[in-house]
Amino acid sequence: MAYRDRKLAAPKVANAWRLPTPPPQPGGQRKPGTSNTRTEDRMAGSKIPQPKTPSSTAAATTTTAMKKSAQEKFNQVQRQHVEKARQYATEYVSSEEEEDDADAGNTRLDGIGRNDGSSTQNILGSVLKNYNGAPSDMGKTQEYLQNLLESRNAVCLICIGTVKRADKIWSCQSCYTFFHLLCIQRWANDRISMKRMHHEEQEGYYNNRGEYIPKPVLSVHWDCPKCRQEYEPVDIPRHYECFCGKEQDPAQHPWLIPHSCGEPCGKQLKPACGHHCRLLCHPGPCPPCPQTISVSCRCAKSAAKTIRCSQGSWTCTVKCTRKLDCGIHECTERCHPTGECPPCRNRSKQPCLCGAQSKEVNCFESRWQCEKVCNRPYACSLHKCELRCHAGPCGECPLGKPRSCPCGRTQTRAACSERIGTCGDTCQKMLACGVHQCMERCHEGECGSCLVLVQKTCRCGQTSREIPCSKEATCETKCKKVRRCGRHPCNRKCCDGQCPDCDKVCGKTLSCGRHKCSSCCHQGACYPCNQKSTVKCRCGGTSTEVACGREKKAHAPKCTLPCRQPAKCHHQNPHACHAGECPPCVQPCGEQNDTTNCEHPCEAKCHDAVTVVTKDKHFKPVGPWDVPRETVEVKRLPHPVCEVKVPVMCLGGHETSEWPCYNSKPASCGRPCGRLLKCGLHRCPLQCHKVTHRASTTQDSRCEPCAAGCVVPRPAGCVHPCKRRCHQNPCEPCMVSIKDKCYCGLTQVFYTCNDLYPPVEGGTDELQGRRNAVLSCGQKCIKNLSCGHRCTSVCHPGACPNPELCTKKVKVTCPCNHRKAELPCNVAKESGGALECDDGCEAIRIQRQQEEQAKEDERRAQEELANQRELEEYERKFNRRKHRERKRHEVKEQESRNLLLYILPALIVLVGVILYFLLLQ
């Protein structure tokens, strides 16, 4: 049997131990203290002894009285047991309520005070029932509603305290954050008072020209503590109003959002479209307008289409086809308003304004200027135009127009070849001070600084002396005023009265008692501590951060680790870490059922350690304030009786299980929900929960939104995962920086992963060209071609391109090495790497052959002479006569051997030459 939620299971066990129950009424309900014709049957099955029926009338009367008395006692005991069981079940359910306030206790009976998802969804459903907009438009408004229903998420940023449901609040009209009404009133009054005090401390001052500058006009306003939206003093909230402002001091209602009047909002939607918000009075901004309107597309070529008013316009698939400003090409963009065609992006070769250069530019840049100076002579033929590339005539010479002397007092017309000198009069130009004039003679260039001695007062106004007009008057007196903080003096030399803010650290101990204020020195109380403190759960395995100083008031974090407390029953009671006592064991008892003495084990919830609250029956209150004492005991309750199982489908429609008949209500099966979420990639990870349609396999309103990471595959080659949450294509470009060597291996190049592995948009050739450009260092390749010369291309991948077009000079000769020449490498390869021999080479070859033949004949003669001498010496020594035939045979054999010695090297050389030419080809 799958485990169930305690809140769902508790009401089902109100009669788990077979307490005496009254008979059913015709309406399906039971009322204690009533009986019907089957009372005798129940009495027969009860253990109360039954008297025997006598035959006489007196005995029958006595028997009837005894039955009536026994029945009254039975009904009285029955009512007591039912009340105790109901009280136990109620306490079992309400043991995890988050607050003990008396006002919140009434709302918890309806399920509104509980911090569970089903109650929140029910409330949101009742608030949004009149809204007909798209679900995607409700995101921000629904978030504010969710935060308001869960009271722990609403925190006043002024006092850092929880905003409860019964508190009076004020909501900012810009950021929609709500604060305690008293807190925002105190905040606004303090801000206005500080501005007025600062304005009173300011004084007028004299500037460097001696002019008196009065203090600025007082501008009093206060701002929101979060978004700093400025408000006027009349905007200080004086009354507690609902979110829409229709009702003051809205009353609490168990079925309405806290601080809401329950009436339609009625605010003008933004942007202003003439419609009003149809939601009930709600916090946060109004959602986009959900009304439907019929409008044509942006280009007005398609028929009207019904869209949401908040969408404003829609785009069709028709192309524009209007002529662009260039007058050549047509607009290829899709639906857009008339007259808003983009500039023509086609390229064409256009001359510059002067016509000196031409280049390929975009059509909308057809009128472009080169860097060439015009340099065409004017009509005077003495001067030339100094303007940069321009169209049309250069005009007349600017030096031929009326000119004046440097001081501008004398103006004359002269030829452009004449130079206008000074007039000799006083310059009298206004100097930089704006008061005095230049007293020098007419001169070229700028006038000097003003040296007239004037009486000037320093910035602080304490000293006065004569100094040149161009200099600023200052003194060495230090300002003794106290700065705005009220603690430190100004100490600025020659202060003009506008003392700067104190730049020292405040250093006061904050309200948390641990840290000191790190802001600049200021007046009034310091802001709350912005540090965080850690609050741990009972086992210490889970922690959360809260505002410093609120550790005691903060609730312990929800821990998912197993509880370390030993179980009070005979089971291993696995549950998550918690605060306070361990929850009751929810496992089946499993022991032999000794109540009914059946052979089945007890399948009810474990009842070894059950908390029972009893009251003193003999208690006599002294007054209405006196309440009876309650005794809380942990007891072992008897086993309940066995019951027949019936099939019940779980909440999510995953499986059908057999449950006891009295508890035959759908419950969670403990499996993952598994419904396909709206992202289309993941499934709901929650355990089996309540859904609207059990047969559906798509996301339900109660399913948990997708919070998984991105699963969209990255471009081929990219190994960096996307850090966004689950989303549809495309992912953001991968901007991870990568360092690698260029193709030639000499330089390190830096690029982003998206540069090398972008999403595939074009063809394979375009993508490969982009990668080659990224990994190329732009320098000359260091590889050698197959011919042995260095590659002339820029750093590139793979083999060097066009090795057959090498133009490096090489030396080539003819086979006889008589002719020599320098040719390009590709030409030398085409010619076989050698020159052809001419007539001179042939004559030299014949001459060399004759010389070699002569040398060979001489060598042979010498060898024959030597052999003859050796033979004579041999015959002389041994004095033997040899047969004539044998000698003739040996001489012939020797001659054949000598011939092979000459022919064999020549054959080897010939074969080598033939192979060399074959390899070159």
From TrEMBL:
The chain crosses the membrane at residues 899-919. This is Nuclear transcription factor, x-box binding 1 (Nfx1). GO terms for molecular function: DNA-binding transcription factor activity, RNA polymerase II-specific; RNA polymerase II transcription regulatory region sequence-specific DNA binding; zinc ion binding. Residues 273-291, 326-354, 380-399, 433-452, 485-504, 512-531, 569-587, 598-622, 679-708, 718-736, 787-808 form the NF-X1-type domain. Residues 841-871 form a coiled coil. Residues 94-103 have a biased composition (Acidic residues). Residues 1-119 are annotated as: Disordered. It comes from the Eukaryota. Residues 49-68 have a biased composition (Low complexity). GO terms for cellular component: nucleus. Keywords: Coiled coil, Membrane, Metal-binding, Repeat, Transmembrane, Transmembrane helix, Zinc, Zinc-finger. It comes from Anopheles darlingi (Mosquito). The keyword Membrane applies. InterPro entries: NFX1_fam, Znf_NFX1.
